Amino acid sequence: MFLLSLLLLLEEKQRRLDILRGDYDEESDIDVMIMVDLPPEELVRDRTKITYFCADLSVDNDVFISPKLQSLPLFEQWKNALPFYQNVIREGVVVYG
């Protein structure tokens, strides 16, 4: 139940941002960046598990969840240089941290 509530909260936040940017439609997804304090090479085995887990949640709850598993050390290294990371910092919602 907690996870469903969290997904609904994220969906609402995502919808508001999409509407403000003018790019919301019925096909809009929930973008989720999962930060893990591991080097990138150790995330390879977990990426598939996360993708399947989010696919199951998407089907069960009629939303499309787009996960991005990210190495925290790599994010910290590039957060001031990459536009995608800047967008995450500017528009993201920290759920646990």
Task: Explain this structure.
This protein has 97 residues and is α+β, with helices and mostly antiparallel strands. Helix 2 links the parallel strand 1 and strand 2. The radius of gyration is 14 Å and the shape is flat. The N terminus is likely disordered.
Number of strands: 2
Shape: flat
**Major sheet:** 2 strands, parallel
Structural class: alpha+beta
Note the gap between the termini: 21 Å
SSE succession: HEHEHH
Main β-sheet, spatial strand arrangement? 1-2
- In DSSP terms (H or I, runs of 4 or more residues), the helix count works out at 4
Low-confidence stretches: 1-6
The helicity comes to: 55-70%
Using only C-alpha atoms, the radius of gyration works out to 14 Å
> How would you state the average pLDDT, rounded?
75
Strand content: 5-15%
Keywords for this entry:
14% strand, 56% helix, alpha+beta, 97 residues, flat
Short overview:
This protein has 97 residues and is α+β, with helices and mostly antiparallel strands.
Q: Strands, helices and their partners?
A:
Layout (H helix, E strand, L loop, with lengths): L1 H20 L8 E7 L7 H18 L3 E7 H7 L4 H9 L6
Parallel strand pairs: 1-2
